[in-house]
């Protein structure tokens, strides 16, 4: 279980470090080609999502690694689950059902990470 958690958590953390970093550091014009939905939400909200993704990535890895407040890993995984439900909802509301594949994969990985965090941590 421990190895499984670390594999899933590491993959999720890498994905969200990349995604969150882009949302925090880049402007709307640079984000638009990869994330067409940035036109549908205010840019400060995009920045908040990016910050939450960065914090969640740290939350998946650092607490179990240090042994300090390991329950934060579960909170991060649940947060990513909710984030992906919101992402899927946004895509579906914009008629972009064909674009939810990555969201579904990330949702499944976050659910698995949450389950593993409850079993292992």
UniProtKB/TrEMBL annotation:
Coiled coil: none
Membrane topology: Multi-pass membrane protein
Protein localization: Membrane
Manganese recorded as keyword: no
KW Transmembrane (keyword) present: yes
Transmembrane stretches, start-end: 6-25, 45-62, 68-92, 99-120
Entry keyword set: Membrane, Transmembrane, Transmembrane helix
Family matches, as Pfam families: DoxX_2
Name assigned to this protein: DoxX family protein
InterPro entries to which the protein is assigned, alphabetical: DoxX (IPR032808)
Organism this protein belongs to: Nonomuraea maheshkhaliensis
């Amino acid at each position: 279980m421990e190895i499984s958690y670390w594999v899933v958590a590491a993959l999720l953390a890498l994905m969200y470090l990349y995604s969150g970093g882009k949302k925090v550091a880049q402007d709307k014009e640079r984000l638009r080609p990869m994330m067409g939905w940035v036109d549908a939400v205010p840019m400060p909200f995009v920045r908040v999502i990016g910050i939450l993704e960065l914090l969640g990535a740290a939350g998946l890895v650092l607490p179990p690694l240090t042994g300090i407040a390991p329950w934060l890993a579960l909170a991060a995984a649940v947060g990513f689950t909710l984030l992906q439900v919101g992402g899927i909802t946004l895509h579906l509301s914009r008629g972009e059902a064909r674009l939810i594949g990555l969201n579904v994969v990330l949702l499944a990985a976050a659910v698995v990470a949450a389950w593993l965090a409850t079993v292992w941590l």
